[in-house]
Amino acid sequence: MAFPQYLGIFSKVTTNTSLTLLENYTSPSAFIEADRHEIIDTIKSTARFGLTYAQNKYHATIQTANEANKFGYIIDNNIKRIQLYIRFIHKYDKEIASILDVLHELVDTHEGTDFVNQIHLIETFKGAGFLSAVSLMGEIGDFSTFSKPKQLFVYFGLDPAVKQSGKFEDTRIQMSKRGSAIARRVTHTLALQSIRTSRTGETKNPVLRDY
Prior knowledge:
The protein is mainly α. 65% of the residues lie in helices and 4% in strands.
């Protein structure tokens, strides 16, 4: 069917670009009939990866759109579903942006406090953003609660879980995953961000990457 095929072409571009294109071109035929330069400009402005990236993505998506248009079909109800989903996503984006604005205001209001200073300290970590820093500090609360680094390690659930029963001892070592799942998730996200490489091959944190 053309509907899933058509939706599949937008997996080739960024989420923001996908939403913009789907909002403007709700069917394969609409995408095919649209001005080539207009679509390329849209991809370039929303993905922000440059003209070459936009042109490559256009050629990839137009090929799939042609295939979907030739071998499948799409009904008006599916087009309405696309439009409905896009409205929901935009609504959620606005709600999230509103929550982030409130968080920024709270941090600005308490500027200079130990809590906010610790947020800014986490933000200096390569790959850490405002939301990650606030989420992490929101879970930790106060570092003075933990008298030893090991206690914080355990609170994150990163300590090894040892399974023993009588004479049996499991040789597989896994995280205990106790404590704060949110803090553990943020830590995991920061680790992934740190070992990422840019389009030029530059590593954000070469020490962690090598490790």
